[in-house]
């Protein structure tokens, strides 16, 4: 499966098949996306995503970590230029979550999504992880089946006691922070 996903990723990059308005997410296949970025962030997203998934935090399943050099050596990828940022050259392939950002929801769905967001973020905090850019409006997707997934955890890291306490305060009332 991994080699097939690498071929599909190369095809997506060559064809500019972006998944969203963000120029860092490619549609690999119907059920897979690839996020591209700086090595340290993408490696962190890969490692942390696998860990969080294993610990039953509601995050997309992570499949592969691929460097631009590795992708080019295994495929016929064009030499992609990343605008003014030459450091974007690592990819993480993950499960595609079809959902809406919380800020786009209304009524009961929004309340349900916020409750789940707090629950999932509490799991992250209990694992000692500081969600540096926890942003309920954009770093979570709410699916039609009622499940919420945390996304975009490339900046998260092991947290200090004071950082984790701060996140606990945000969970109690996130409104002032967003």
Q: What would you note in describing this structure?
A:
This protein is of the alpha+beta class and 178 residues long. The chain folds into two domains: 2-95, Phosphorylase Kinase, domain 1; 100-177, Transferase(Phosphotransferase) domain 1 (Transferase(Phosphotransferase), domain 1). The protein has five helices and nine strands. The protein has helices spanning 2-15, 39-54, 68-74, 107-126, 161-172, and strands at 25-29, 32-38, 62-67, 88-95, 100-101, 129-130, 140-142, 148-150, 157-158. A four-stranded antiparallel beta sheet has the order 1-2-4-3. A three-stranded antiparallel beta sheet has the order 5-7-8, with helices on one face. A two-stranded antiparallel ribbon has the order 6-9. A hairpin with a 2-residue loop joins β1 and β2. It is globular and about 50 Å long. The N and C termini lie far apart (40 Å). Mean pLDDT is 84; it is low at 81-85.
């Amino acid at each position: 499966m991994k080699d097939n996903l690498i071929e599909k990723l190369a095809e997506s990059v060559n064809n500019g098949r972006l998944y969203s308005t963000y120029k860092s997410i490619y549609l690999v296949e119907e059920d897979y996306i690839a996020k591209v970025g700086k090595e340290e962030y993408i490696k962190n997203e890969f490692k942390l995503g696998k860990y969080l998934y294993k610990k039953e935090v509601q995050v997309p399943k992570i499949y592969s970590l691929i460097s631009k050099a590795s992708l080019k050596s295994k495929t016929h990828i064009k030499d992609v230029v990343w605008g003014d940022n030459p450091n974007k050259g690592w990819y993480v392939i993950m499960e595609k979550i079809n959902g809406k950002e919380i800020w786009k929801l209304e009524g009961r769905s929004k309340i349900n999504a916020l409750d789940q967001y707090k629950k999932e973020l509490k799991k992250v905090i209990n694992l000692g992880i500081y969600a540096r850019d926890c942003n309920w409006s954009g770093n979570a997707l709410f699916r039609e089946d009622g499940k919420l997934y945390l996304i975009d955890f490339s900046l998260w890291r092991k947290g200090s006691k004071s950082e984790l306490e701060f996140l606990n305060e945000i969970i109690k009332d996130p409104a002032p922070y967003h």
